[in-house]
Amino acid sequence: MTENKNNVCYVMEDGEMDVQIKQTKAQPEQSNNNRTNWSNGQCVVAMPGYSVLNPSFDMSLCRAKLENDGFQIPEEDMEAPLKTALEVPSVRRYMVFNSALFHFLMAPVLYLVVWCAVFSTLHIFITVSDYWVLCLSVSLVSIFLTTAIVFVLHYSNKEIDMNLDVRLIQVNERLVKHKLLVSVADWVQSCAGNMQLYFVYWDMSRCLKALTETLEERNFVGNDTQNKLKKKMSHLVLVTEETAVDLRLEEAAKVATNYSLVPDEALPAQTRAYQLLMTYSAAYVKLLVSQRLSGPTHHRLRPRRNHCTTAPLCLCQYIKKQILR
What we know:
Oligomer: single chain
Radius of gyration: 23 Å
Strand order of the largest sheet: 3-7-4
Protein name: Transmembrane protein 268
Number of helices: 13
Keywords: Membrane, Transmembrane, Transmembrane helix
Shape: globular
Helix content: 40-55%
Structural class: alpha+beta
Organism: Eleginops maclovinus
Number of strands: 9
Largest sheet: 3 strands, antiparallel
Number of domains: 2
Order of helices and strands: EEHHEHHHHHHEEEEHHEEHHH
Transmembrane segments: 100-125, 131-153
């Protein structure tokens, strides 16, 4: 376990950092044969939610599908952390109201509200002889405002989500030992919501090595890299609940504590690289499976050292582009 100056603890069990560079110990022969067929970025399991209003997932079915593909994952590395991250009532409500389907359904409602507001305002202060001119003007203004709001909501979904992606950091810290990353992604398809829990195969060793080398090279620049991290990650806070015991009342109460996710510059480059990869792992997988990663689509135009054959950018390149640029 490493701890930065903000007391953020990143759980790295004995030998886990070596696991990121070297291959893990051999699994049963059948499991190994199945897992060698996967490459970085391939979706192993896509588990749809029960319903739009109940965005929960069948963990037992997830386990069965993963085991069928050769991934033997202990319960404490998958079900337990996933339930802690996603099955909180407040998180479920957020998943409903922030879903792509909800935004899709709210667009016409928002248009009507904006249209009525603009029409009532202009009708009071402006006298127009031709009624259709007023209606046309109001419609154009309403379309523009509604489009702008929908665009802002769509763009915000491409950023790291504090309520989902950050909560999945600790889950991915456990799953990456089994060469898997998990995230929740959704979009509208055929006027229906498509929210699913995605398990994507990912061998982190090459990304960890490449990002470590990048951070080591930039150490000679001084504080420039750390200033970029603080500027672009200062809003990322991990909220944890700690049990505090009141000796006078002899009762235990849960106290929420905020931890910054900005890596401590005093840590080794490899540890900082690992923290960055884990912090943005869920956000990257979300963009990967929904095909919203921006970059050259043609194979020959893709950047060198791309460790993902199914996307224009791999995880370490995504971090370099979004955070370190």
